[in-house]
Design brief:
The structure holds two protein chains of two kinds.
Chain A lengths: L2 H10 L3 H12 L3 H12 L18 E2 L2 H4 L2 E2 L5 E2 L4 H27 L9 H12 L2 E2 L5 E2 L4 H19 L1
Antiparallel strand pairs in A: 2-3, 4-5
Helix pairs in contact in A: 1-2, 2-3
Chain B lengths: L7 H20 L4 E5 L26 H12 L9 E5 L9 H10 L3 E6 L6 H9 L2 E7 L4 H8 L4 H13 L1 E2 L2 E8 L7 H10 L4 E6 L16 H17 L3 E4 L25 E4 L4 E3 L11 E2 L5 H7 L2 H4 L15 H4 L23
Parallel strand pairs in B: 1-2, 1-9, 2-3, 3-4, 4-6, 6-7, 7-8
Antiparallel strand pairs in B: 9-10, 10-11
Chain lengths: 166, 358
Amino acid sequence: MNAKLKIALLALLGFSTASCASKRAAKKSSDKEMQKIEADTVDTRIMLMYGVPMPDGRPVIIEDEATTEAKEFPDGSIAKPLTDEEAERIKAEIRAEKEQADSLDLQISVMYGVPFPDGEVVKEIVDEATNEAKEFPDGSIVKPLTEEHAEALLEEIRKEKAEAEK
Amino acid sequence: MKGKRLGLRKWLGLKLFKGLYDTAVEQHELRTLFWECTLRCNLRCRHCGSDCRVDVEEQDMPLADFLRVLDEEVTPNTDPSRVLIIFSGGEVLVRPDLETAGHEVTRRGYKWGMVTNGMALTRERLYSLVNAGLRSVSVSFDGFEDAHNHIRQNRLSFERARDAIRHIRSVEGLAYDVITCVTPAMIDRLEEWKEFLISEGIERWRIFSIFPAGRAANDPTLHLTTEQYRRLMEFVRTTRREGRIKLNYACEGFLGGYEAEVRDHFYMCTAGVSVASIRVNGDISGCTSVRANYTQGNIYRDRFWDVWQNRFKPFRDREWTKKDECEACKVWEFCRGGGMHLRDEEGKLMYCHYNMLK
């Protein structure tokens, strides 16, 4: 009787020794996978008296590591531990960024997923469009907008904005 | 209460598992390599199987000697990602070059772990070891303050072990468990102790009981009676069924009706089958709990891989254990004479867990 069959029968008998492996075996049937499963079944789960648990491959994360330890990078460089002042400065920057992001999030939720046009950006685009022709990759040229046309477009945008606010 | 008797389902399961065990023996793929890097220890525990002490005659093995074995013998013949290296002692933290050892082992593609009493495991040391590749750690924690400190013979040992476990828990992804050696002093307090461990957030717990080796051999107060042993088995079985903490009884011996109910697996002694050790003096053996002289070679005289492939006969073919009380035993085919650590220098069985279940 081969090992696969023994494992399957053990699972049928309800023994955890094999049931876990057999479930996996049902999904992955290549020989290479099966060899690994069989080896795992009879080895890695044996808890030795003075052994340690088998690491499960999860990434290991140390809390506050960046502020307490120097870290050596693969290129051999050493990151010096942060001073308290540097840490405070970084925290302040993060807080500022977070506040900015929070306000942006609020706008996004209000505007149904579209960032709120603040007028300045629109104006810049219009100014750029009106002042110079733009060459596209296919070689076509977009003619500059006239002042009147640009004003008309801005007026349309203002109306749309007003309607959206209502 | 269960006892020695095997039901039909379990008997069939054991028959099938026996075949898998034979395959494992035939393949003898090296999966765990202990490096007994020191015999020095910062404690002098009453139950120490290694009989370690603060000052030992045996010098620590130089790291370079161990790395030479890895580079010349183990790495060319194995897939390092499948071999777990366990630094053991003594108390491994007394070695100042443990981080270097960890870095070097990790650089070669091995995962490594260590067993510690926690006395010297400060937060800083732990982080330094994790940065050196530590991925698994087991801490000995034998009971409440009075019981733990009594066994460890140090009034700070409980507090230090508890703090060490708290530090370990702060490292996300680090595999760990807590090991309790159950003595008569703790047998009535196991429920309380379990609640304490759960309240500390501990998820994995391993229990073992004293076997008569090292210092423990001469202290009868550490040994459980038959009745206490049965209670211990019932406690482990019930706790596992509750599922609030993942508890396993260590690989001590065959347990009859308790097989597959107090451990995740059926009994199997993997010493010399998938587990090898390199002792502090260079001796090559099975797992470090085997204290009697079943040395198969020495790294300073022999090629490790040659020893692993071609020796280890007493570990892999255990017909020789079929003598004395094992000779007529009807479960020998499943037990194979018990763990190798339970055999003395003459091969005599020192302790039978199965017989404790009468």
